[in-house]
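Exercise (ungraded).
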Amino acid sequence: MSDQDLTVSVENLRKTFKGPDGGEVAAIDGISMSVRAGELTALVGPDGAGKTTLMRMMAGLLKPDAGSLSVLGIDVAADPQSVQDRISYMPQRFGLYEDLSVQENLDLYADLHGVPEGERKQRFTRMLEMTDMARFTERPAGKLSGGMKQKLGLACTLVRSPDLLLLDEPSVGVDPLSRRDLWTIVQQLIDDEKLSVIVSTAYMDEAERCAQVFVMNKGKLLAEGAPDELKKRARGLTFTATTPDGMPARELQARLIDAPDFIVDAVPKGGNVSFIRQQDADEARIGELLRDAESEPRDEELEDAFMMMLRQHEAQDGEAAAKPATDKAAPEPRRNEDKPVIVVRDLVRKFGDFTAVASTSFDVAQGEIFGLLGPNGAGKTTTFRMLCGLLPATSGHLEVAGLNLRNARAEARGRIGYVSQKFALYGNLSVRENMEFFGGAYGLRGKALRKRVSASIEQFNLDPAAQSGILPAGYKQRLAMATGLLHEPDILFLDEPTSGIDPLARRAFWRTITSLAMSGVTIIITTHFMEEAEYCDRIAIQDAGEMLALGTPREVRKQAGDAGTDMNSAFIAIVEQGRAARDNKAKDKERAA
Amino acid sequence: MSASGFATRLVALTRKETRQMLRDRSNLVVGLVLPVVLILLFGYGLSFDVKDARVTVVLEDSSPTARNVVAGLRGSPYIAPTWASSMAEAERMIRAGQTDAILRVPGDFSRRLAAGDGQLQLLLNGVDSNTAAAIEGYVGGSLALPGQQQVDRGGNKPAAAANITIVQRMWFNEASESTWYLVPGLIVLVMTLIGAFLTSLLVAREWERGTLESLFVTPVRPLELVLAKLAPYIVIGAIDLIMCLLAAKYLFQVPMRGSLWIIIVSSLLYLLVSLGLGLFISATTRNQFAASQMALLASFMPAMMLSGFVFDLRNMPVVIQVISQVLPATHFMGLIKTLFMAGDYWPDILRNCAILALYATVLIALSRRSLAKKLD
């Protein structure tokens, strides 16, 4: 391979930062790699793998501490501007100017990149068409939904055809529909313009589209190769276990994932459980774990290989993979299907003329895990806030833990725990201080408070003296959850608890959730990861304030028809059907008028 | 390619900054409304002149000579005399805050005056020492003249040194009006406010919102970022300058003895200095809150307290004097006051303008450096 065919070549690259405790932390720890031109290349890895640091060094924004890095044949450290003149880079949080309109943002970037006037018109038309934003050119960027902002960010990055395109986790926090649109745009440009693209991602289905995948963890390169090649590492180890009738898939999944000596990974999927066995695991022991569940081999996927590599690396590192916080002595399930703890009838919320939630009804039973899904701006957060008593409903009936939220809001609040999307604890307090403060705010005092705090610290496996602000994302999440559970609420609300958390921590997180549900706590959760819907007993899909689907994951998949092979495509299909129906209704109305 | 690229990018960035500035209402309030408020506040509200000072006269000597001497008080626009029948009553009044000063004419005044040794007692309420000093001057001034006449009329040659009368003449600020020196100083304050306060948010905001990271990976150069950020605020500063000059001339009738163009050029030079300071603070703190606090502490407060705006620097401890000499505001303050009231004095103009130009260059270079396209 000659140098001309390489867009990026990295040799023994190192970059260290000052850690929160004053020590040196190697974000990139001696990485060497070559990225071929004209291809789609993926950097995959959990949080803190060093993907963003590597991207920023390629973009000339950070200087390497050691090693060499050349992009498009230019030594980036020596001449960053020459690289920046030729590449386009979309950071994780693309900096749109929120007070400028869509068109003004596009113009700005076109001017900065020196796109000639004639070329510009054609390019804009194409970008606006692909992002479906031609109608909104005059709208301020700040008033777009999260998915639209991300698409506009991509459009601004692509105002000209660069020699290399760098995309840093373009789909984080973006709903499945916008995610699909983003990828359609990238794919089209690759096909039409033979773009060289490097994308970092936490989604394996995105990595699977790429010609070359680099797997990273903790600043090290674990593996590289084509997706099909990497997949092979899991060959022969992947199985599907069919759950016996009447048993939630997550119970079997919990049993399997609790035996890391034999099972690498297990996730609920399509009502059954997909798992990876350890290479050297004893057949008989696995049979014991499965009990009466049938298991049969399935095709390996990139995700399987990825999970295997991560677990192996964590094990080599001598660090036990984030242990799930569970009560080892699983208490008797306190499930009571007859008496719903949440009753919602004809719930409506309007903001002025805008209907955020339209006539929604559902029940949630005690000990149930109830998932609320929907694209950005679907009304999930509004519904959520009404259920927590943070926002009054415009009309409708709302009952939480047997209390009507209209007249007993404060009392109802005492029965619920709430974990917000952002880390809402005090960063400069220690774990114990945070818990004591919030416990006090919930009305716990003295001995009772100390006892609950100590018990929670043990249950969630936390270090009480650690400073909360510098904990890894997964631990922060755990602390937030422990805090929300201090007053032993009947219902726990979790708003997108898993965005920005790596897959291992997510497994541990869900293990905690399932064991909480087992002990009788009702869980209401929102998420962007559709595969996580499989852990839920029932899910509701919302779009534009309307309830489009409600039922068990299996029922919802069925509702999606042929498309419903997996949760992600089922979700997309249902939302699109809903939108088509709404458009038709609107057209009928127009015709009638 | 490079030159035209520079122009295109600079125009695009300047357009962007201007739009952002115009769409942010709080910016315009600080930039255009606050200066007006400051002009009115300092012009009308803040004055060290004492008008209608309450002076209580205790006339223990009721001779026509004594009456004649104090009659001068009534003619003064600065003094509103009242009369008290006894010293005890006058003392009660001064304690109760009903009067600012007591002028006591002792019973033997006319006799001793005839002997060339006339003495009056002036008691001042020293709670506000500025006012007390001013009243002392006014009373002395209004008494001196009739006393002089009396002596002349009597035809007696005064006993050598005892009766020398000082005839005061205040140069440059003949009326000793405080607006005359406050209003030019106000230009310094307004330029400081616009510069440091408004620009201190500019770069920090881009850091906080993550817009710089996207901007950095384009052909844009750091200098272009700096210039584009300065441009719209130079316009705002120029508008404020015009407002200040108009107010000075027509509202407060402050004389403008120096050349208008030198006033404008030096003001714009100082505007650049404070814009540069604001940008530099903004780019280094990367945090809007910290930047605005820093800007307040590093520019506005010292410009108000230490530049000689109100307080004479020569009365300050040496350390403070040294600090004040480091402040660009001090140099501009001295220059602009001289320009308004004394006229063009070239050595002063050249020296101070050179200092300001040096500051502007250094600060803009530092801002450019702190915007080097790097994240670490």
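Further reading is listed at the end of the chapter. For now, observe: The radius of gyration of chain A is 25 Å. The interface with chain B takes residues 17, 56, 59-63, 80-81, 84-85, 87-91, 93-100, 104, 107-109, 111-114, 153, 156-157, 166 of chain A (CB under 8 Å).
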